Structure formats: C-alpha cells, structure tokens
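Figure caption, in words: inputs first, then the predicted bound structure.
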Amino acid sequence: MSGKSLTQSEAPLLEVKNLETAFRIDGEYYNAVDNVSFSVKPGRIVGIVGESGCGKSVMSLSIMKLLPKENGKIVGGEIKFAGINLENMTDKEINKIRGKDMAMIFQEPMTALNPVFSIGYQIEEVLHNHMKISKKEARTKAIALLKSVGISRPEKIVDEYPHQLSGGDASACYDRDCDCLPAQTINC
Ligand SMILES: Nc1ncnc2c1ncn2[C@@H]1O[C@H](COP(=O)(O)OP(=O)(O)OP(=O)(O)O)[C@@H](O)[C@H]1O
Ligand SMILES: [Mg+2]
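Bound structure (magnesium ion present):
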C-alpha cells in the first residue's frame, strides 16, 4: 500500500510548541509551564499526565486564553488552533471560538456551573450565542443533549439550579454545557 493513511496525513487541530507560561510573584516571573509541546489531530484524544502542581491546568488555561490577567502570561512558544495562531487574537476574536470550537471542562463541576442560572439557561446560552438558533430551538436541543448523556427527566432538570442536582448529574450537565459544540475539549 502506498501513501499515508488519512489519520497520518491530517493536519493537527491543536498545536502547542515550546509553551512557557509564567506567574508574577513579588515582581518576578516564575514558569509554571516550561517548554511543553504536543499536537492533537482531529478526532483524537490526548491525555496529559503529571503530578499535582506540575502545570496541567495552567497549560490548559493558556490554550483557552483564560490565564489571570493580573499575574499570568505566556512568555514563550506558540499555540495554533486550526492553523490559526491564538497569541495575537483579541478577546472578542477568542470569544467567538471559545465554547464553539474549543472548550474547557474544569475540575469541579459544582463550582464551574453558575449557581444563579438554571441548567437549561447555561446550556442554551452557548447554543443560542454560537449557533444563532432561536431560544425555543436551543431549549429543545439542550433537553436532547441532557438525554444523550443519560440524565433522567431532562425536561425537569433544564429548569433546575446546580444545587438541586446530584454530583453525578451536575458533572454530566456541566460536560454538556462545555461540550455541546466544540471541536476541541480540554478536560482539566
Ligand atoms: N494564579 C496563580 N498564581 C500563581 N501561581 C499559580 C496560579 N495558578 C497556578 N499556579 C501555580 O502553577 C503551578 C501549576 O499549577 P496547576 O494548577 O496547573 O497544576 P496541575 O498540574 O493542574 O495540578 P492538579 O493535578 O493538582 O490539578 C502550581 O505551582 C500552582 O501553584
Ligand atoms: Mg489541575
């Protein structure tokens, strides 16, 4: 057989090259992520393993451009998503991608879900903003998404608030919130 397989020849969706992220402490910058490189092709799952505190979450926040503005910054390397360098993107430009093309699932679903908005609202907001569908269509899709992850009584859960859910249900709802559209999801 000649030629590359489809997977081998596909361009990466995410490319991280020599990434360095630092935090400013007492006026000095210290690296929390030091020279990390990897790439993810479409349809592939990549796991990043390392001891607690080694920089997995900070690396993910760097990719999502969610580092704390007051003391965190990328000090080296580059991040490309779908061939586009994320470094020079404005907040407005990245907001169009975040939640639509890439999303981050944070470690604690109970604290990541907004306690003052219903589950349905939090899923529908993403769908409505990025897919330009009506609120009614977004609601129907939100219910279908909840059902697809095995949530029982999804029609009721959409109107409930995070504190009313079990830990497992909250986690599944949160995953749907982050995961309903993106090409790239970072579980952190
Ligand atoms: N806002 C911040 N300011 C200063 N240092 C920070 C900040 N956030 C994270 N750090 C530091 O960056 C380093 C990497 O932390 P990070 O949360 O990425 O670890 P992790 O690999 O995700 O750990 P875990 O497996 O426990 O989730 C740690 O030393 C942490 O204290
Ligand atoms: Mg972490």
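Residues 148 and 173 are 11 Å apart (CA to CA).
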